Each structure stands twice: as structure tokens, then as C-alpha cells.
Amino acid sequence: MLADSTHALRVLETSHPPTIYIPPAEVRLSLLTANDAGPTWCEFKGEARYMDAIVAGQRAHAFAWSYAAPTAGYEALRHHVAFYPGRLDAAWLDDERVQAQPGDFYGGWITDDLVGPFKGPPGTRGW
Questions:
Q1: pLDDT in tens, 31-87
Q2: Are 93 and 111 in contact (CB under 8 A)?
Q3: Residue 70: CB partners within 8 Å, gap ≥ 6?
Q4: Burial zone of 39 (CB within 10 Å; 0-12 exposed, 13-18 middle, 19+ buried)
């Protein structure tokens, strides 16, 4: 298990299912390592740095991301870790298994109580 949290933050953005940010104290950081692909920039939250997971000798690239110095208004996300649910064996919110947001750009967590459409599939990145 990479993380187990009772203090995760749920962040909502327009046209996206929520992204879950987990406090670093509730993440097995020993299984994560810096990704060498470089950062990306979110117009709201600032610079995101990506992490790879190394489990049983296997490396999974760009598995998670974090904001070391988020912009004003997003300070609560500092050093929290967000995971792409589609790159995990399974992701859960309480007793419900999460569905990954379609596509490979966004990291939204879809549960049965959410209704789309959501950005992610081909042709939806620009709306």
C-alpha cells in the first residue's frame, strides 16, 4: 500500500472529477523517487514535480505529483501527494473503488456519485 489517509484533501476544478491530495505523513515516501522528466506548471497551483514509484524492483514512471511551493490560495497542498488512480493497481475512497479519469493528463478520481462529462478523453482537453 502506497498511502492510507484520513486527512486527504479533495480538490475540485472545472470539468474535472476531484483530485485527492494525501499528506506526506500518510504516504510511504520510501517507495517514491523524483521523476527526471521535469516539472509542469498549473496556472492555479504552481509548479508540480512528479514522482516515480519503485515497488518490488519495478519502476512506474510519473505515478504521483506534489507542489513544494504552491501559489497563494493553495498553500494547504504543500508537499501533499496526488496519485494518478489509473496508474495504481487500485485506489479507494472509503469502501468504494475509484475509477480513473479518462486520458493520461489529468488525475481525477471518479466515484459512483459523480456525473460527467469530464475532461480527459480525446477531444476534450480544450473545453
A1: 999 999 899 999 999 999 999 999 888 898 999 999 999 999 999 999 999 999 998
A2: yes
A3: 45, 46, 77, 78
A4: middle
23, three cell numbers: 499528506
Contact 109, 93 (CB under 8 A): yes
In sequence order, the β-bridge partners of residue 15 are: none
Whether 34 and 49 have beta carbons less than 8 Å apart is answered as yes
Q: How many CB atoms lie within 10 A of CB 22?
A: 20
Cell numbers describing residue 55: 515497488
Phi, psi at 24, each rounded to 5°: -60, -30
